[in-house]
Fold these 3 entries.
Entry 1:
Amino acid sequence: MFKKTFLMLATMVATFISTIVTAIALEDGARTAFEDGIHSAKPGQLGFMEAATPIMAETIAFHDLLLWITGIITLLVTGILVYIFIKFNAKANPVASKTTHNTLLEILWTAVPVLILVLIAVPSFRLMYNQDVIPEADITIKAIGNQWYWTYEYLDYEEIVFDANMLEEGDADYDKHPRLLGSDASVVVPVNKIVRVQVTATDVIHAWAMPAFGVKIDAVPGKLNETWFKATKEGLYYGQCSELCGIRHGFMPIMVEVVSQERYEAWLEEAKVKYASIDAPRLQQYASAQSLTE
Ligand SMILES: [Cu+2]
């Protein structure tokens, strides 16, 4: 019995160590410069991507706090169990105690967990509130999920409406992005500005998710969801549709380019010309939604 348990524990420890060693070995094997753990996860990465918004920084801090709390509780419970196995087994302690109640202990094991839950609730509620309440926005973007691509509308500029499709092998720029994460158009936003994102869908439920921003929100047909982010570091960030939405669910990436205010304004002028000449993407959406039902 003891030998079996020991073997099982040894296997678990060995698996854990080999996972970490593999992860460390894989770390240098990034396919593109973006797979650096900041703009996109690096191969074999453990933990979160680096935070690009204050909300994500808060999320990581909250996660780390929880990891300490659950870690200490796990160690404490394991320690107590091991102590009991050794001290109170039939051989070491042949005459068992008949004690049934201990008021102090009972108060303690009720009060301590309550205190721990309160300790967790304070930062948890604060984070949920900060995510939910959208500060006054500098720009508003609408992200519309379609099977299987995204449509974006810059609500302050009528002309800026465009689709973002995944880059396939053979497309120009395909090699510049991590696999399945490159798309032919990216959302461009200015750094350090509050961006409100309204999210909806035309066909089935999708989800607009950007790990480095701490943003993940469902895109539901007939419903307008809202979220926000304030990216504090310039660069190109990758996300994906995060709701099982059909056969090409894994092929609708999200690219957000965070640029300086000047570059953003230059992009706006370019985009107004570029996207105004494209056939209304909204008509294409309805066409594609229709073709599915035919
Ligand atoms: Cu989707």
Entry 2:
Amino acid sequence: MCSGGGGRARIVVAFPQGLVPGSGTGPWSQPGSGRRKWSVPGLEGSQPHMTVQSHQVKDTAVERLSGGDMLIRALQDSGVDYIFGYPGGAALHIYDAIFKQQRVQHILVRHEQAATHMADGYARATGRPGVALVTSGPGATNAITGIATAFMDSIPMIVISGQVSNELIGTDSFQETDMVGISRPVVKHSFMIKDASEIPSVVRKAFYIATTGRPGPVVIDVPKDTTDPAVLFDYVYPETVKMRSYSPATRGHSGQIRKAVDLLLTAKRPVIYAGGGVIQGEACEVLTELTRYLEFPITNTLMGLGCYPATDPLFLGMLGMHGTYEANMAMHHSDVILAVGARFDDRVTNDPSKFCPNARIVHIDVDPATISKIIPAEVPIVGPAQPVLQDMLAALRERIGADPELLDRSAHQHWRQQIAGWRRQHGLDHKMMERAVPGASIKPQAVVQCLYQVTGGEAFVTSDVGQHQMFAAQYYHFDAPRRWINSGGLGTMGFGLPSAMGVKFAFPDAVVACVTGEGSIQMNIQELSTCTQYGLPVKVINLNNQALGMVKQWQDMQYGGRHSSSTYQDSLPDFVRLVESYGHVGIRITDPADLEAAMREVFSDKLRDRLVFLDVSVDPDEHVYPMAIKGGSMCDMFLSRTEQS
Ligand SMILES: Cc1ncc(C[n+]2csc(CCOP(=O)(O)OP(=O)(O)O)c2C)c(N)n1
Ligand SMILES: [Mg+2]
């Protein structure tokens, strides 16, 4: 075991004006639901603090539209091109409105969970909010997993749910469910339409809330009577939206940035720890510039992969539970950490009381509730990553430009050498593909390496959840943001295929690969039919270890190898025949000697326009390493079945 550290003092964060964390009465202040429950008095009811400036979009006469038509028109005016959804009684007026227009295309999924994941994948790849539409009752409840997935990873999304008519609400009528109530803990905000006339302004506000500050999903619950085609309203799309009680920070505090610069200049063993907030905040470019200017080593969270080029020598790989040895060692032994858009979650910190005992921390986040929530920051900076880092870089340039000695470059060089030593000792083996022995079992890591090589590192890669997800995160090197798309916070099996489809709708010419496991793919495998309907040539790489591999690994390591309900006893389908029945191409391999040729076939020009499912029979006994030792510090890791750090 490496040396651990003690606890640390808690430091109070100053909150930006207009946001009050805690116990208010607004919809974002539900007890027990964790973070970012800002009290916004009245936001859900009469909304006295929210105003929208209404202007006619065109200078022609005001159009008279039904509620259903206004909803779709407002989506058009919000720039929506796709709605992923599934119809039902309460949503039928809306579906009729969709039918009558061409600007927004509706994609008919096979399960509402998949609709939300498609909208999510679309949003992660583009940075624009994804939109899902479901009916009331079971349609709405089926969407919850996807909403929670987006919430946990701060993904902008609009989910429109049909609702029973106003006069039926509260009567336990057919397919009535309290969607606003059920979704409350996992949305950034929700609206219930009371009067059809408010539809355009609610849509406008929903997009504003979903995309500003810390992004997240917003639900709009639409009672059927408010979309009645027989009742017409003046349609006016609000040009601007002003919400007095919701004012996310737009810049960092200059005094705090100055303090952060002072601290960074003291560093002898610095590390930059960057998360998904850097990607969501469009701050990758400035972060890269700042990192290279300082020549500080940098590590990314699972959600942050791609925010800094993975092939750059300063990059240490992912940190945390299955992070690289060198990233975790560097974090633990650092003296200054610059954390940006990351939230110190348990998969990163291991035991928080032993976390990086000597590190002084600068923490930048747009969400003040995240700062010092788990690990106290010495210099908290509330603000969007991009302008904060720009200001920080400008200040650093000014200070170091005037006095280059301020930066201890020789200490930093020594530090980078120490990290390189750790990498040499126990870094990931990036030659598993080349070293594969024909006839032996295929190593899952080698499959990801092969995928990386064949796609030239250019693919959008989505994943499901399990060992395959960790192998993809470890072995595919993402040099650009928004290319690695996975459910980090909620860890949702079933995310991979539909999110890949959302990416493919957004970027039809891009190469989109879903790295999955035979367990996860079966959670939304019905979407292969949607792929057939819309001709979506995503590529599915199934790391088939014939087990719920990650569960089995934990059972190996913590439950004496008792595989309680983590294997299937020969009940798996023949994936090749299954995908062929949907009209797709299936390929199965079992020998490492066939890996490269098969992978080239999957991405060949010949199969460019086909969905190809590569079912790879991989070593069922492989574990993911490194793996954090529970209850330890960041430098306490299992390195193999027999070695510990
Ligand atoms: C919806 C859901 N249910 C259960 C889990 C718990 N879980 C995490 S990984 C895993 C196994 C995944 O199996 P598979 O997709 O085959 O991936 P592998 O680990 O074998 O690569 C399970 C059951 C989860 N993350 N999501
Ligand atoms: Mg599996």
Entry 3:
Amino acid sequence: MPNSPTGSSGDRLALLLARLDRVKRVGVDRYEALCPAHDDRRQSLSVTAADDRILLKCHAGCETKEVVSKIALQMSDLFLEKRRSEVIPPAGRRSEVVYRYEDETGRLLFEVVRLPGKTFRQRRPHPNDPTRRVPNLHGVTRVLYGLPKLLYPSRSVPSG
Ligand SMILES: [Zn+2]
């Protein structure tokens, strides 16, 4: 029995690229190759690894499903395992932006984390351990972003 793909973008991408001809890397997670769905001589096919899928684009106009069927893959092979997005990566491993929502005294109430791919996550400090986060907003007072600065624009707000 063959090994099933693990679902990581690297493995899926490698599988796809291995079936294309004259693959050329043109950027971070971007490749060009000969389109298998038409008589291609100039690498018309763009392959881009996005956050949760692999994007294929033939500049001669072939449909993506035509392209994947020519290399014995299915449309579902372009999508990465959905479960992957439920895993919260360790802090700092990926580029993420954290928006802190504080009460009028500058105390952290909750955070909204923006992950690559415009995914947003909400989390609140753990009641017993402020270094940990709980991935929901149960019992949290919703406030405007930047509330302390809105209330006291001239006062410096303690951070931390
Ligand atoms: Zn094509």
